[in-house]
Amino acid sequence: MKKSVLITGAAGFLGSHLCDQFITKGYRVVAMDNLITGDLKNLEHLFPNPDFEFYHHDITKYIHVPGTLDYILHFASPASPIDYLKIPIQTLKVGAMGTHNCLGLAKDKKARILVASTSEVYGDPLVHPQPETYWGNVNPIGPRGVYDEAKRYMESITMAYHTFHKVDTRIVRIFNTYGPRMRLNDGRALPAFIGQALRGEDITVFGEGTQTRSFCYVSDLVEGIYRLLLSDYTGPVNIGNPNEVSLRSFAEEVLALTGNKVKIVNRPLPVDDPKQRQPDITLAKKLLDWAPVVSRKEGLEKTYNYFRSLPEAEWHRQPK
Ligand code: NAD
């Protein structure tokens, strides 16, 4: 009998790569998504597979899945600033009610559940790099608070289900990840830079571009999540690439890759934008024997080739 896994947020960037991973590893995959930011195009190659099924469902509503489930991967949530600033209430609801429903399902099915948390739980961090023991510096009433606090609540209710209902839980804190199937117009730095370069527009960097991020290629992230799911560890684990870069240098790397002759221009920094971000992955290395292996050069090339191969109309598509 194949093991079965439910993946929420399956039509999104990370969810769709997770579906591929679990199908490749020989699982039966039940994918669920309400398509609020996701796209069925990310999954259509899996539709003919008899081990794959898709439910169009909003997980803030009661979730019913027939049959057994061994694992649940809870990835449904708007994830980019453009998305969660446009749909703040849905973001809070999916972090709160959506997570509650997933945990209830895990309890009912006696399934192990892994929830997708984020480096945003550290807010604008006062500790650098960020270990899992750091409690964070989040502004609960700032514009980003809807996402950061939804994820902090998600961690909290997950631990409560673990402690009080003995549900078998895992928490991954994901740092900025990139790769094919991101949306060019989702407002995150890399697709924004590549989209502007493809359209021949100047590349926009917020502030002076001295703020840093650490970008992890999607295949590295998926491998880390897979290992964490199969591990015994129930505390939060950072998964990300510690190779930190300033946004200015990152924009220059993208520009060099595309060979375009556009300029880099500066725009005002958004409110509460974190100044630096770098995962401390000591725990993941020790527990999971995991570390990222894809260099930024290789990952950027793969991602750029994906976006370049899209029909030109996609380069100009406006956000949903
Ligand atoms: P995404 O927007 O591409 O995917 C999210 C998916 O969730 C979409 O397909 C969307 O339609 C679906 N969804 C949202 N609300 C839903 C609901 N109520 N019911 C059912 N489906 C719903 O984003 P992503 O980058 O793939 O992120 C996936 C998860 O990983 C999110 O939980 C996000 O917070 C987390 N995460 C991502 C990153 C990253 O760098 N990509 C970093 C940290 C955390």
Can you walk through the features of this model?
The chain is an alpha/beta fold and 320 residues long. It has a domain at 4-178 and 216-239: NAD(P)-binding Rossmann-like Domain (Rossmann fold, 3-Layer(aba) Sandwich), CATH 3.40.50.720. It has helices at 13-24, 81-86, 88-109, 145-165, 189-198, 218-230, 247-258, 282-288, 296-309, 312-315, and strands at 4-8, 28-33, 52-56, 71-74, 112-118, 169-174, 177-178, 203-206, 212-214, 216-217, 236-239, 244-246, 264-267. The strands form 4 sheets. A 7-stranded parallel beta sheet has the order 3-2-1-4-5-6-11, sandwiched between helices. A two-stranded parallel ribbon has the order 7-10. Helix 3 runs parallel beside helix 4, helix 5 packs parallel to helix 7 and helix 7 crosses helix 9. The longest helix is centred in the first third of the chain and has 22 residues, at 88-109. It binds nicotinamide-adenine-dinucleotide (NAD). Nicotinamide-adenine-dinucleotide binds next to helix 1, helix 3 and strand 5.
